[in-house]
Amino acid sequence: MTPTSDGERSASRPASLRHSLSSLGVPAYRWWFLSQVFSSAGTMIQVVALSWLVLRITHSGVDVGLLTTAVLSPLLLGGPWAGALVDRVDRRRLLMATQCLYIVLTSAQAIVTSAAMPRVWLIFVLAFAAGVVGAPDTAARQVYANDLVGADRLTSAVSLNEVVINLSRVLGPALGGVLLATLGVSACCWANAASFVPPLLVLVTHRHVTSTRRSTAVRVHDQRFLTGWRYAWRHPTIRLLLALAAASGLLFNLNVPLPLLATRVFHVGAGGYGLMMSAFGVGGVLGGFLAASGRGLPQRRSVLALAAVTGGAVLATASSRNLTEFYAGLVVTGCVSIWFIARANTLVQLATEPELRGRVMAAWSMALPGFMPVASPFVGWVGNEVGPRECFALSGVLLVVLAALGARRRASSA
Predict the structure, then answer these.
(1) What pLDDT digit, counting tens, does each position of 172-192 carry?
(2) pLDDT tens-digit map of 134-156
(3) Roughly what angle, to the nearest 10 degrees, separates helices 236-252 and 388-413?
(4) CATH class belonging to 20-413
């Protein structure tokens, strides 16, 4: 290899790294990103603690699943209203309100779980209330990143958000396990309450960040909260990406297929299950950085290719012959799936008119993760009636089919 090619390669690596981290060059986003690391880890800490507590009290896996349903069902049911709200109000002020509400609700959860015999119904009520707050909060967070960095750095911002989510999948359960074993469930909830303070401080400090301005005509149009869904349905690319996001929900709902695979196929205990979650999370961190390092804006063709590759990785992982292959498959699947979903998320935002971005991203949140409360029971049923491998492979089949249909329709229209 010539010295020139060595120099070109060494120069391209720093350039690619700078592109991946370009959104961190915006001071407001840099502090927002760091605050999200704390917030996401705190959420995972509480998830681990509450799931363990509900299982200890009720001895029912169904009740643990219903806890997830309580948190996520408002995303599915309230998405249109949440999206309309995000488009009508200043997103920074909305996020300040949701962080304050989160602190109140998680503090209440900490008080409830400190009782000698906590009331499960009250835990569920507070979890549902947090889900109601989460409906506008989830959509607002995604659009707020655009407000902070602009379209040129949006790919980097969305991809780094996926890095945060997957870091929380690795760090959150580990920290939650330590807190749970040493200080108890209530301490985990207090830790989550404290984790919302850094984002709140960032939002209060950076007052210069405002939402995209809207014209008077658009404000009147905003009153129709289903406009985002109608717009998404009439836009072929956005419609396809929402379907792919819903199919991905079958994959990212790992708490259903992985315990079945761990106990019934590979015959490992809780430690093996935890390692499976971590393996997927490590791959997801790598996938987030790969998505952020993309030189150009995401295109429909490349996103469909990533969806097909993700589906293939899922199917290959599901057919692993031994535990080592399965762990390796989870790392690869985590990498390509997060790479795909980050690029798809960015493409949806860039393809949407700014005036409708809040409502379309609320539709995205309804598809992922809002579709999980519906998908989880079906995945569990497939796992019980057909097999653990089949329930894990289900998302892979759907992703491959949808990607093929999208590519075929594109080819026929061209």
Answers:
(1) 767 777 788 788 889 999 999
(2) 989 988 988 888 888 887 788 88
(3) 170
(4) mainly alpha
- CA angle 196–166–138, rounded 5-degree value: 45
Rounded to 5°, the CA angle 280-36-172 comes to: 45
Residue 118: DSSP 8-state: -
Hey, what amino acid is at 33?
Answer: F
Residue 151 and residue 147: Cα distance in Å, rounded? 9
pLDDT band at 296 (very low <50, low <70, confident <90, very high): low
pLDDT at position 300? 92
Strands of 177-267 (E only): list them.
none
Torsion of CA 51, 272, 392, 298, to 10 degrees: 90
Q: Contacts from 401-405 at CB under 8 Å and sequence distance 24+? A: 402/240, 402/243, 402/244, 402/247, 402/307, 403/244, 403/304, 403/305, 403/307, 403/308, 403/311, 404/308
139 with 370: CB under 8 angstroms? Answer: no
**DSSP state letters, 102-155:** HHHHHHHHHHHHTSSS--HHHHHHHHHHHHHHHHHHHHHHHHHHHHHH-GGGHH
Structure tokens at 52: 């363990």
**57 Cβ contact partners less than 8 Å away, ≥ 6 residues apart:** 117, 118, 120
Provide the 3-class DSSP secondary structure of residue 119: coil
Residue with more model confidence, 172 or 111? 111
Coil/strand/helix, residue 262: helix
Cβ atoms < 10 Å from Cβ of 60 = 12
Q: Where are the domains of the chain?
A: 20-413
- Cα radius of gyration rounded to whole Å, the chain: 21
- DSSP states of 11-24 as a string? HHHHHHHHHHTGGG
Residue with tokens 């060059």: 25
Distance, CA of 346 to chain centre: 13
User: For residue 301, which of 344, 361, 333, 260 has the smallest C-alpha distance?
Assistant: 344
Q: pTM, whole model, 2 decimals? A: 0.73
What is the rounded distance in angstroms from the CA atom of residue 182 to the CA atom of residue 349?
43
CB atoms within 10 A of CB 92: 22
| Residue 209: both structure tokens together | 């960040």
